[in-house]
Amino acid sequence: MIFKKKGISPLIATVLIIGFTVALAAIIMTWGTTFSKSMQKGSEEQANLQMVCAQDVQYTMSAACSVAPDIVRVTIKNDGSIDLLNMTARMFTSPSTVEAVPISNPGANVLDKYDIGVFDVTWAGQAANVKMVEIVPIIEVGGKQVTCSQTVEQYGDALGVVIDPCV
Questions:
Q1: Are the C-beta atoms of residues 84 and 110 closer than 8 Å to each other?
Q2: What is the pTM of this model?
Q3: Is 160 helix (H, G, I), strand (E, B) or coil?
Q4: Residues with Cβ within 8 Å of residue 55, at least 6 apart in sequence
Q5: Residue 99 in contact with residue 140, Cβ under 8 Å?
Q6: Beta bridge mates, 121
Q7: What is the mean pLDDT of residues 12-30?
Q8: Of residues 66, 123, 133, the one with CA closest to residue 93
Q9: Helix (H, G, I), strand (E, B), or coil: what is residue 112?
Q10: Residues near 8 by Cβ (< 8 Å), separated by ≥ 6?
């Protein structure tokens, strides 16, 4: 028995290869467009948040002192045009030893715009050993809480002497 093996003609094979190539290119182009648009949107949102932090968040820490063995009192003035929702205090007892402690007021802003606040920060360490206090603000933009880590305010010197007791 002799079998004649027949395949598809070269013309049909070429048409199929071109069709598969065009379909694959269309899929990759659609995915690439969606991917680049989502990356652009994410970058744009991040840039807007950084601009809000840089322009609208302005505050000064005018004093920090130890009240009790585990309490540091900080005085902060919000000069910016946005409410500070929360803040984080970083307590430095040496240049390499730091502890972050949240300053929050559940259900309300910690510091309204153009307001001054005095906050007692309770933490596990010894307030008498604190050499420097840093404040990192947290704001709300578009329903999202944003930590403005580039607008840090410091009081004291991590290499210097400890902060004074309150009078």
A1: yes
A2: 0.71
A3: coil
A4: none
A5: no
A6: 72
A7: 95
A8: 133
A9: coil
A10: 16
Q: Estimate to the nearest angstrom the gap between the alpha carbon of 78 and the chain centroid.
A: 19
Quick one: which of 81, 69, 57, 45 has its CA closest to 135?
A: 57
The Cα 134–Cα 157 span in angstroms is 10
Distance CA(115)–CA(78), nearest Å, equals 5
137-160: pLDDT as tens digits: 999 888 888 899 888 999 988 888
Phi, psi of 113 (to 5 degrees): -60, 145
Cβ neighbours around 32 below 10 Å, total: 10
Of all residues in the chain, what percent carry a pLDDT higher than 90?
32
Q: Kindly state the tokens that stand for 147.
A: 């930590």
Q: Which two tokens stand for residue 127?
A: 């307030």
Q: Where are the alpha helices (DSSP H) in 104-159?
A: none
Element (H, E) at 22: helix 10-56
- Per-residue buried b or exposed e for 84-107, using 16+ beta carbons within 10 Å of the residue's own CB: bbbbbbbbbbeeeeeeebebeeee
The size of the chain, in residues, is 167
Q: Is residue 5 predicted with pLDDT exceeding 90?
A: no
Map residue 129 onto helix, strand or coil.
helix
